[in-house]
Amino acid sequence: MKKLTIPYFQTETFGAVDGPGVRYVVFVQGCYYRCLFCHNPESWDLNRKVKRFTADEIIEKYKHNIEFYKNGGITISGGDPTVYLDFLIELARKCYEQDISLAIDTSGVNFTKSTESKHKRICEYNPLWIVDIKQINPKKHKELVGIAEQREINLIKFLETNKQRFWVRQVLLPKYTDNKEDLIKLGEFIGSLKYMERFELLPYHNMAIPKYKEMKIKYPLMGINPPTQKQIQKAVEYIKQGQKNKK
Predict the structure, then answer these.
(1) What is the pTM of this model?
(2) 20 to 30 A Cα–Cα from 211, which one of 30, 141, 195, 224?
(3) Is the pLDDT of residue 246 over 80?
């Protein structure tokens, strides 16, 4: 039987922000969303020729520096790893059998009714899901990512129903995700979640502009500055207000 492989464009040996502890991070090639604030545009193309890993090779790379990962593990990020569900099932199983912490960093881009059964199989091996909410307002979601369906919201509801461990993140993007009503609604949503272990509000940054120039892609957020500390604090207050509404 042919071994399953996954295409990747980058790895990070000592990732400190991609799950608990220090982690070995694999950034896979391919994504269905086209987020305006995406900082990895090189990951979009599913047909781009890049290197590939088997599950065993990822685990081997992790074990090579295992002394540094005592409180961490392996994180699969992207792009979006849920594009490759069969591979994730195998990797999750092997990590589970070897007592390795696996985190799956995703926007739920491949979570649909037709793929729900494969997501359930991954859940059998108890990974940590790190899910990025793009925009809680469904009318604004398509403008931000190119797809109207809020697959990340549907994935979170699925994880909640199936009592899975997960974190939730959202990028704070001025003029797009900093609306007061939207942030309160976001707070109400995460305030209703029993199995969410952590929420992170990530300030937008524009450090990917050189990548877009190199790839000759027009940067869609030119002129949009990162949020100020005051804007961040205000957003946190609105989210907390929404969370209180659910208590």
Answers:
(1) 0.96
(2) 141
(3) no
